[in-house]
Design brief:
This protein has eleven helices and 15 strands. The chain has about 350 residues and is α/β, with parallel strands linked by helices. Helix 4 crosses helix 5, helix 4 crosses helix 10 and helix 7 packs parallel to helix 8.
């Protein structure tokens, strides 16, 4: 089989195609023929060696997110059959409940090999059945971005009908947040530096768009929009993806007693100009979100199946052009998910 690996060098140019033997599943495992994989921002960090000693140093097969078809079963496997279409969980060993150190180290494509290979062994607890109406590329977008947004909106956020949700940017997590918040009956405000992307986000279901490049003090604008919508005091749940450069505005947008779902640090990982007394005095709940367990992946897929939600895929690259997929993600030109097709379909 073919696999893409990062050699001992770092950087997108170090991604190289190799030949490797097709593995054989052991007890409690299955062999998946990978149809597609998707990229996340963290994959750019891994490509540059950003996790340092916490990532595999030689011949790492990247990407945590993949979907495909089971082609072989190991002993004692009863949950799946050959021919089942499946999607990988981001954490291969976090079945349910609270996060643990062990669960947090069971992700793929960092310390252990990921899904940018034609076949991969998976434990049965690391897979869910793919919603029937989704392609492999669409399904592969669920593992990290989809479940992260689900956790922020549903599992942790407990968004209710009539709530106001604000989400930042038009990457995969943000657009899933739009879809899940609308499914929950909430109104959605979205930010972007591109008016064209805001138009697309509104077509997806967002109620209001704010161009943060034109309106650097967008927090007050979002707060006033939320007040007009509900008669309340601001946004109920802010999906915080920016980090250092956006948290102040997010806190201004949020209502007293609201939630700030902290997911990304695209503009920096330090606290910057965040005023801690502001958080305390307004009784703000800061909720870190790190994807989620398999039980929530199952619930999310059930909701996606029932509502026939379609993930937003910007572009699908061929396996041979995986470097181009990384570069496209790095350009920030995408609207939604960037995927790689492995099966040629």
């Amino acid at each position: 089989m073919r696999a893409q690996v990062f050699s001992t060098s770092t950087g997108i140019d170090a991604l190289t195609m190799i030949e490797a033997p097709v593995p054989t599943p052991g007890p409690g495992e299955v062999l998946v023929k990978v149809g597609a994989a998707s990229l996340n921002y963290r994959d750019l960090l891994i490509a540059k060696g950003g996790y340092r000693s916490r990532q595999k140093q030689e011949n790492l097969v990247p990407l945590s997110d993949g979907a495909g078809t089971i082609t072989a079963l190991g002993d004692n496997v009863t949950a799946f059959d050959v021919g089942d279409r499946v999607t990988a969980c981001f954490f291969q060993d976090w079945p349910a409940g609270r996060a643990t150190d062990h669960a947090m180290e069971s992700d793929s494509g960092r310390a252990s090999d990921g899904f940018l290979q034609e076949y991969r062994i998976c434990p049965v607890g690391g897979l869910v059945k793919t919603p029937d109406h989704l392609s492999d590329a669409e399904a592969a977008s669920l593992s990290c971005a989809g479940l992260t947004a689900w956790s922020a909106v549903v599992r942790h956020g407990q968004v209710q009908p009539g709530d106001v949700v604000l989400t930042q940017g038009t990457g995969g997590v943000s657009l899933f947040a739009v879809q899940f918040a609308k499914l929950a009956g909430a109104s959605v405000i979205i930010t972007s530096s591109s008016d064209d992307k805001l138009v697309k986000a509104k077509a997806l279901g967002a109620d209001f768009g704010i161009n943060y490049a034109d309106n650097p003090e967008w927090g007050a604008i979002a707060r006033d929009i939320a007040k007009d919508l509900t008669g309340g005091d601001g946004v109920d749940n802010v999906i915080e993806l920016g980090g250092t450069q956006t948290m102040k505005q997010s806190l201004i947008a949020g209502r007293p007693g609201g939630t700030l779902s902290l997911i990304g640090v695209l503009s920096g990982a330090t606290t910057g100009n965040v005023l801690l007394p502001f958080i305390i005095s307004r009784d703000v709940r800061l909720q870190g979100v790190t994807v989620g367990p398999r039980e929530d992946m199952v619930r999310m897929c059930q909701a996606i199946s029932q509502a026939k939600i379609e993930p937003v895929i910007d572009q699908v690259f061929d396996f041979e052009n995986s470097q181009d997929a990384y570069r496209y993600l790095e350009s920030s030109a995408h609207f939604g998910k960037v995927c790689i097709r492995l099966d040629g379909a």
